[in-house]
Amino acid sequence: MRPLAYVAGFLSLTGLDNPSPSQTPSPAHVPHSPSTPATQHGPGKMSFLDSLVTVGPLGAVSSLIGLNLTGAPSVIWDERIPLITDENYAEMIVNETLTAEEEKERVWFLIITVTAGQPEGVSKFVDHVFDATYNYTLEKGELSHVRFGRIDYLNVTSITTKWAVWSAPYLVVLKDRGQTLRFYKAGQIRLTDEILHQFLKEKAWSIKEPWKSIYGPGGEREYILDYLAQFLSMVYGTLVRVPKWLMYMMSGGLATFFINFLHKPSRPQSAAKPAVKPVSAPAAPEDAVVSSATNTPQKGSTKRKGKK
């Protein structure tokens, strides 16, 4: 019954039992700590312009005032779990060398994380549970057909665009070389390494239907997301070459321009002159009209008097 309880607890991650939007992990659900120390992955190689303001006196001054000009905080991740990127996705997953039996059993258990941009919060907790699940699986010596992988949401463009993933963190169960995908929104329930291990061992992920869409893998309009992924990858490849501090200055100046433009006061309009109303002649009093009518001599009576 215990394995079934673990599986039932994780199935609520699919939204079948309407879990609360977010819950804070309790001390009773703290997963096992990694058995081996993790490696600290910092930002990549800096450009020359970045090094001018992040190294030396300017870097010392900026650190004193609490200004991070690199824009990429270091993240501690377990190096034994491969980092899946746009460049190595096809090599590691799509074109992985497998026998027919191995290909049928292969399961990739992936996490899409944003811890690199949000060092604290739900994403960091899910990262910690994911690493603990990997260690727990090694301790048990089971699930040889399951491979773990991590995707940095802030450092990939093509993968998340093809999968129509616009937020993170997510847990992904991938099969058939990326043709069968199941997504689970993380952070909705308390997770532990034992629950995730049982979830994979009992193949509870097969209860949920895989993602089917005309824009998804094998869909009629899959090419649309493919083209969009290529375009966004080109844009990202261009913007990533711009130094972070210069990007901050440009985006700040552009935002200030738009704000000033939207709040620009309108031109004062001249007051319209009131239209002149025609003055109508005052109406004659009713008594005067009656008196004038009675005092007017009749032509017929005058003529008769003259004849007499």
Automatic annotation (TrEMBL):
The chain crosses the membrane at residues 245-263. Residues 270-285 have a biased composition (Low complexity). Residues 17-26, 291-300 have a biased composition (Polar residues). Residues 17-43, 268-308 are annotated as: Disordered. Keywords: Membrane, Transmembrane, Transmembrane helix. It comes from the Eukaryota. This is Thioredoxin domain-containing protein.
